[in-house]
Amino acid sequence: MQPTTDLPVIQVSYQPLHISKRRKICSSRCVYDVLMEVWNRDTIQLLEEFLVLFLDRKNGIIGYRVIGRGSNCATVVDSRLMFSIALSLSACSIIVSHNHPSGTMKPSGEDLKLTKKIKNAGDFLEIKLLDHLIVSDQSYYSFLDEGLI
Question: Parallel, antiparallel, or unpaired for β 61-69 and 93-99?
Fold first, then answer.
């Protein structure tokens, strides 16, 4: 017998690639190359965006999502949305990234605080923050490579 209710049914879905076809992340350069394939090159120097890669246990890319878009100097990052997606995908780890339209590759104080906040939340949820990249159309800055994660 089916329950009768007027409550909405919540459905979450995505179209996964077979595990054997997932691209593997092996370095910050590899992450940058992947990001440049999906980043909107028409706006990378105009407005700040925050993009997340969701990874499986073997660092295979499950998928990506733009979490925030902002102005030429800032964007809002909804960490609850980011982690709800990660949990619904059963992601084991994430790599976060954002661009600096100015082309400056040095992280701001806000970038450092946000990275720490995301890492702490991920630790609690057992979703590891592998890296945070600041990107431009010419180069990148890796928090992991610089010893900040």
Answer: unpaired
According to DSSP, the β-strands at 140-142 and 128-135 are antiparallel
Domains of the chain listed by start with CATH number = 23-142 (3.40.140.10)
Tens of pLDDT, residue by residue over 84-95, are: 999 999 999 999
What SS3 state is found at 50? strand
Question: Which distant-in-sequence residues (6+ apart) come within 8 Å of 74 by Cβ?
Answer: 48, 110
Residues 6+ apart with CB under 8 A from 28: 131, 133, 140, 142, 144, 145
Is the pTM value of this prediction over 0.70?
Answer: yes
Q: Has residue 120 got a pLDDT over 80?
A: yes
> In this model, does residue 1 exceed pLDDT 60?
no
